[in-house]
Amino acid sequence: MNTYKAGFRSLIVAGLLLTGTSCSDYFDVNTSPNLAASAPANLLLTSAEGMLGFTMGSDVHRYTLLFSQQLAAQNGRQTEAWDAYNLQSTEVNGLFRTNLYAGVMADLEQILAKDPQVTHPAFFGIAKTLKAFTYSVITDLWGDVPFSQALQGTTNTQPKLDPSRDIYTGLIRLLDEAIVDLGKTSSLAAPTTADYVYAGNTQRWIRLANTLKLRLYLHMLNAGAVTPEFVNAFVRTTEANAQTGFMTGVADDFQQRFEATANRQNPIHQFILTRTDDIAVSATIMNLMNSKADPRRAVYFTPAPFSPAALATPPASTTGYIGLQNGTGGNQVRNTLSRLHTYVRGNVTTPAASVPAGPTLGVTGLAYDGTAPVQMLNFAEYNFIRAELALRYGGPGDAQTFFQRGITASFTDAGLGAQAAAYITRNGTLTGSPEQQLQQIIEEKYVGNFMVALEPWNDWRRTGYPGLSRIPTSVNPGNQGRVPRALPYPQQEVDANPNISQRNSLSERPVFWDTRTTGPQ
């Protein structure tokens, strides 16, 4: 992690030198992972966005996509323990404190503390939107966490935990404030090149803020924290403004882009470079996509068994791609499995002539440039949210229409837009009972959210879909193969803050909206 962090932040070293900030202090991540308070807002914004994108493509990504069975693990190392739900409290120390609170959140707080007389209001609106997103990640991972007393430095080193329900209410207010700030005009210098997400386009930031609100409202509906009537009124009011309503296309995807330069590449790709055989594709998502002969497999995965011919002409039937059942890694390396491909790792840079006929020690012979973005909330998800809202809560619009739009958006994101219509002809009609239609929506959302950290796990906790397999009890007898419902609290925080008590197991349900009692537990 630290290598990447230093690499990404080298993008702003020149600015640091101009402001007189010590580079040695800045890169001492063990002392201060965030920028100095005197740093200008544009450097703080770049830093916060970079750390958020990195974090969503590293620890959050690995834990939650193993739990939601998009990924599986082999080779007997750390990831295989996580795949067996043996995640230790000491392993999440850095994620909680260094990356999220002292990294992303600290940089955002410094932006929000800037003088509004000399800082463009868009900086405040973007920072509030990112803060709301980051806190939604934190509370969805851990449940009750410091919120109202957090980020106070030495003033309060033992903040209380706020209930996750109260945090959600606070995030909605924060997003409302963000939308107001983003709608203001000013002659001050606006964020442009400092904003790696939307290049300072405030309309797109407003669309993200509204779409994030809708995601949060969908979670809240699960616990009765808001009424369907309230959410549906919000949708009607918001979508009436096409310019600053909800996301309107894949260009509005909330994602962090990466570069082909070493240490600035996609963090998923970087992890695979250093641990080539540790990550596999889960049989859960693979079997789901195989059953529909899903064309997206050709960019999501490498064919199996691998060959240059299969790479050149991807299998189009219900076979040709192989996943690994979660919890069955068995300290082995299986060279016959499919691997993550261009959608996740960027463009292939290997000359075709150098690609071997079969993998050696799990290596296909393919090299990638690592430029694939880390997606955090995409246009496909927005449409699937609308489909679920229409189906379950009488929301505006037609569930079937939004269902098909979600599929089309996912294919477009994958660079396969021309193949969407044929797939929709075969798989794009909602049928059966309302529960069966919900299953269809969530399963397509699950595929459309491939490699999007956290939300596939959230959807399973909310709805029970897709159907996840219990891992063998033998690999984690204490958990009896149950899918985790939360992360352990960081041991560092438990030791330092008497307000935090460690949960008894990962099967506890600390997030207020995780109320489902039917289906797989």
The number of distinct β-strands equals: 4
Strand order of the largest sheet: 1-3
Oligomeric nature of the chains: single chain
CATH architecture of the largest domain: Alpha Horseshoe
Summarize the amount of helix as a percent range. 40-55%
Low-confidence stretches at least 5 residues in length (pLDDT < 50)? 1-33
Q: Please trace the helix and strand order, writing H or E for each element.
A: HHHHHEHHHHHHEHEHHHHEHHHHHH
- The shape is globular
Please give the radius of gyration in angstroms.
22 Å
- Looking at CATH, which topology of the largest domain would you report? Serine Threonine Protein Phosphatase 5, Tetratricopeptide repeat
Tell me, what is the CATH class of the largest domain? Mainly Alpha
Number of helices: 22
Beta-strand percent range: under 5%
End-to-end distance, in Å?
Answer: 33 Å
Mean pLDDT: 91
- How many structural domains are formed by the residues? 3
Give the structural class.
mainly alpha
Largest sheet: 2 strands, antiparallel
